[in-house]
Amino acid sequence: MSSRKPFRLTIVHPCVGRPRGMKQYIRTWQMECLPAAMIAALTPPDVEKKFYDDRLEPIPFDEPTDLVAISVETYTAKRAYQIASEYRQRGVPVVMGGFHATLCPEEVGQYADTLVVGEAEGLFEQVIDDYRHGCPKSFYQSKERPQLRVTPDRSIFQGKRYLPIRLVEFARGCRFRCDFCAIQSFFSATHSHRPVDRVLEEIARVRRPGQMIFFIDDNLTSGLDEAKELMEALIPLKIRWVSQSAINVCHDEDTLDLMRRSGCQGVLIGFESLHADSLKQMNKSFNLMAGGPAKALANMSRHKLSVYGTFIFGYDHDTPQSISETVDFAIEHGLFIAAFNHITPFPGTPLYERMKTEGRLLYDAWWLDDRYRYNMIPFQPRNMSPDELAKLCLDARRRFYSWSSIARRAMAPVNRRTLYLLRNHLIINAMHHWDVEGRSGLPLGDESWTGKLIPARQRQ
Questions:
Q1: Rounded to the nearest 10 degrees, how much is the dihedral formed by the CA atoms of 225, 226, 229, 234?
Q2: Which of 137, 101, 94, 93 is closest to 119 using CA atoms?
Q3: Residues 22, 441: Cα–Cα separation, whole Å
Q4: Which of 39, 331, 351, 408 is the most buried (most CB within 10 A)?
């Protein structure tokens, strides 16, 4: 019998940030962390795995481990570097991957012993094997899109108090090239999907009576034929599900009928703007197809499908009046919920490069700047000041989630077609009502952290 100790892996999901004295993290952000579960699934079964979610629990930095894995997003980058520095100060190597690692590899590579660029399938297994044999590389990169055949290992979620909605992934990527979107930059405007039978097996394993399934795909219908195949297979399961889609699906009668019959309760649609000039600038003029947002919403309502509409403000043709008109539209058309956010120039996107070239970025890297707070405007808008744009976004959320607006939208037939949906509408909108300002001013990174960031090149 071998006495060799098992290799130990610690997977950490960083929070966005927290101010000093914060006792409870933002509840609406406490969903399952599928990237962590995917890393766990890619890890050989004889490796000892532990997972810590920075949003829910303290991280035991002194607990013995052989390797730490962190998936980094732009908003969590600063906190990820703090966590990595804590481990690396203790002599524990850190591997980082994720969206931000792919979009900003030089930056992320400063704080990681090993950097993974691209999707983890086909790479992370090699990372673990190399570390076990004492020959890790500092850089791993996928050369092509991998086959998506791995099912997340949710055993790492045991005992954690996540929101009661199941997250399932069918496909990744999107074929559209919206200029603000980091998704199209990461996947180079490509789209891939998992085999339908694998998705059905996962749903059968994780579903609970009455629980909603959220397909977290960036654009579920980017591959329409594959999406319809999935929906056909969902019909016998009699589940309730929601997802995200581009507006074009709202004008496809066959697909809308299939969505309803397969258990779809509603979808997130990125309307972004009601104005042609803004949509043209963001490379999203197709949103005005076949009658535009008003016709799209009428079609969705006719098929008894609710809509979570998202809108972004701050493009060069936006004005205080156009923003006010957008909120009026969202209330009048009875959106189930809606998001009204300023555009965010994420690194690696055409939007970021354009604003950088025009000298309109207010920070060299807003996601690392100590002055930056969540919901601050990191660029100079054309027709208003940054503070004015921030206030208009906040006012838009206040108006939309006012009690009078919630009551009015609850009366829309599509939002009260069942007692289950009406109940969810009232609960979810009430949560947003109380959380209109809850995230504003949140620092990126933990303000209570007193350590020092340790770049990889300085590690002894």
A1: -130
A2: 101
A3: 13
A4: 39
Please report which helix (H) or strand (E) contains residue 97, including its range. Answer: strand 94-97
Q: Which amino acid is at 101?
A: A
Per-residue pLDDT of the chain (460 residues), as tens digits, is 445 789 999 999 999 999 998 888 888 788 999 999 999 999 999 999 999 999 999 999 999 999 999 999 999 999 999 999 999 999 999 999 999 999 999 999 999 999 999 888 889 999 999 999 999 999 999 877 767 788 899 999 999 999 888 999 998 888 888 898 887 777 777 778 889 999 999 999 998 887 889 999 988 998 899 999 999 999 999 999 999 999 999 999 999 999 999 999 999 999 999 999 999 999 999 999 889 999 999 999 999 999 999 999 999 999 999 999 999 999 999 999 999 999 999 999 999 999 999 999 999 899 999 999 999 999 999 999 999 999 999 999 999 999 999 999 999 999 998 998 899 999 999 988 988 877 788 999 999 999 999 887 544 3
Cα-flanking dihedrals φ and ψ of residue 243, to 5°? -165, -165
What is the DSSP-derived secondary structure letter of residue 161? -
Task: Report helix, strand or coil for 390.
Answer: helix
Residues whose CB is less than 8 angstroms from the CB of residue 215 and which lie 6 or more positions away in sequence, other chains included: 168, 169, 170, 241, 242, 243, 244
- Residue 141 phi/psi, 5-degree rounding, is -140, 135
CATH classification of 164-360+402-434, choosing from 3.20.20.70, 3.40.50.720, 3.40.50.970, 3.40.50.2000?
A: 3.20.20.70
Enumerate residues 6+ apart whose C-beta is below 8 A from 450.
Answer: none
**What is the location of CATH 3.40.50.280 in the chain?**
8-147+446-458
How far are the Cα atoms of 84, 141, 376, 442, 445 from residue 22, in angstroms, in the given order?
21, 38, 20, 10, 12
Backbone angles phi, psi at 288, to 5 degrees: -95, 5
The CATH architecture of the domain made up of 8-147+446-458 is: 3-Layer(aba) Sandwich (3.40)
**How far apart, in whole angstroms, are the C-alpha atoms of residue 251 and residue 59?**
48
Burial of 449 (0-12, 13-18, 19+ CB in 10 A): middle
> Which tokens sit at 317?
């043709």
Nearest of 201, 197, 178, 191 to residue 224 by alpha carbon: 191
What amino acid is encoded at 126 in this protein?
A: Q
Decide: helix, strand or coil at residue 428: helix
